[in-house]
Fold:
Amino acid sequence: MQRRHPAFKAFWYSRPSFPASDGFVLAHQFTALRHKQFLKFWLGSFTSVGATQLQIMGLGWLVYELSSSSLSLGYLGAAAGLPAIVTTLFGGALADQIDKRMLLIVTSVLIAVLLALLAYLDWAGIVQVWQVIAIAGAISVITGFDWPARQSIFPSLIERKDMMSAVALTTVIWQATRMVMPALGGLIIAISDTWLLFAFCSAGFFLMFLILLTLKVAPSSNAATQQSTRRQIVEGIRFIMTNRNFLILISLSYAVFFFASSYMPLMPAFADMLNVDEKGYGYLLSITGVGAVIGTVISGSLQKSPRLGLAMLLSALIFCVFVYLFALVCWLGIAGAFYFALGILFSASIFSSIFMVTTTTILQLEVPEQLRGRVMGFHGISYSLFPLGALLVGTIANESNPSVGISISTTIFVAYLLWVLVTQPGTRKIDGRALTEKAAQATPFS
Structure:
């Protein structure tokens, strides 16, 4: 089967690229790994997260190969994002009601089955665009239940004082696989076909399923189990709306993904502006993973900073400055623009990473245990906003160019960020020392 141009012009490349949260890892910050059950969960997560990165690349490639249509890729992005936003609300409530380990077991095996089905359809040569989009949508529905449980289970596997380490180590999984898996996926497709890639993805989730079967998690007693799902969701929303820092941090996370981070799924268009081929496109994607890993390293030094909140907000602002510079370099097309763009993306990813680790760690440390699944589920919606933000930027870009689109979109986020910096002293003055002392005095989560 003839392969088409690999720089599929999608509005959707990664869930992110992300992950999920960003953190800090130095030798003395590996402390979460001393907990055997967390170590087992962390190692197992490499298989499912790696499979997710391969799946993201393979779905876009296959849809473009079958349709040669950017519109079909837009539908794929909507299918990958919208269902997860809706089901995450219920997934967070469910994670607070039932055994999180059992919920992850079910979601892992269901995703493995769906990817195995896609691999078969592709191998048999009968796969159609609507089938790929339908399977992507089904996976997105399941992810809405998987993500809150995944975010809320690992605190039960560690002591509270090891939270920063656990957040960091969890982030490393996403960033490391983000650097490696796109290149590996391209090699798999070149050697064989997309069906083999999806088979590997299925195997990755199945391995996670097997590891979860051996995981031991102490059961938690939650009052939430006595409430209806609707009331639990309302309770989670009420908690966020009545706790200023939670409302600000979660809304900032939503805004940074929807408005300021959409250059990632639009990277094929920027690569075209920089006049680079598929290899250059791959470098542009990979360098963001490298920068994010460096950001996880740097962010750890902020854990005990008395100005943790200010550092978090300024990191987001500096990230936006680099996004503007990236848009400008792509638009100008000056000599050596590609290399300038690589350096700018590397720097942008560092500060984006610092912002996300501090945000996620503060939320994890402060959220009441009985609300953890719901609150972290709401926070996890951030990553599902990625493709929707890209559709917004893409719409603007159709009337101008991608640089103008991302600049306008980023400006909306900057306006909100500056408002928070000026008017929200409670967020700006979050003290890392107080959080650390509270963590040290706390009992284990479980």
